[in-house]
TrEMBL record:
It comes from the Eukaryota. GO terms for molecular function: metal ion binding. This is Heavy-metal-associated domain-containing protein. The keyword Secreted does not apply. It comes from Carex littledalei. Keywords: Lipoprotein, Metal-binding, Methylation, Prenylation. Residues 1-67 form the HMA domain. InterPro entries: HIPP (IPR051863), HMA_dom (IPR006121), HMA_dom_sf (IPR036163).
Amino acid sequence: MKIELKVQIFCEKCKTTILTTAANIDGVNSISLDASKGVLTITGTADAVEMVRKLRKAKISAEIISFGPEKKEKNKEKEEKKIECKQPYWYGFPQYHVYYEQYPKSNCTIF
């Protein structure tokens, strides 16, 4: 499950309090805090209501923004594939640097 909470962050001590409080709750797999937006994102099996209750007990204002299953982003993984250039090889005399590169999903070859 993915839980997004809106928290108020005033200083560095607030950040550490938020992160340590969230980390001490059972069922938390990962925590990310966007300080500029004031959004705490938690993934795992933790209870959202318990998370808000413990943050408020630690004197941190917290509200639930969204709660639901974690979305898997397969499209971004495909876009992140990088084209690797092969090492140049020597051809003829005088020696020229020849780079060979073939684009994926294409029959195009560039020399």
